[in-house]
Design brief:
alpha/beta; two-stranded antiparallel ribbon; three-stranded parallel β-sheet; 33% helix; 5 helices
């Protein structure tokens, strides 16, 4: 599996990060919410977060250096429960576009 992932990265994989505030990078310095809705559960809208100093910001910098053809999309939804994410999962990924998907959720 490691070889297959490396090949995807070398070809310029599209990586999608899905999860809660951990995935979004909430709480990292210099992070902010945009006005782009990435998940709507009928009652609440969850907005995209930009977080260049978060773990995924560092991961994106690494990808640009080592695998410049890769793109990273963060669909972390700060404040969303695992149930909300599960119910809205189809809003957060694209089968035709996403090569690698990371799922991050806090356990209780």
């Amino acid at each position: 599996m490691r070889i297959e992932i490396r090949q995807l990265l070398q070809r310029g994989a599209h990586i999608n990060i899905i999860g809660d505030s951990l995935a979004a990078g909430a709480g990292s310095s210099g992070s902010w919410k945009t006005d782009k809705v990435i998940l709507c559960d009928g009652e609440e809208n969850f907005m995209r977060r930009i977080a260049p100093n978060s773990w995924w910001g560092s991961f994106e910098t690494y990808l640009k250096d080592k695998f410049p053809g890769c793109t990273l999309e963060n669909n972390g939804c700060g404040g969303a429960s695992s149930g909300q994410l599960r119910n809205g999962i189809e809003q957060l990924f694209c089968e035709d576009r996403d090569d690698i998907i990371f799922l991050f959720f806090r356990g209780k």
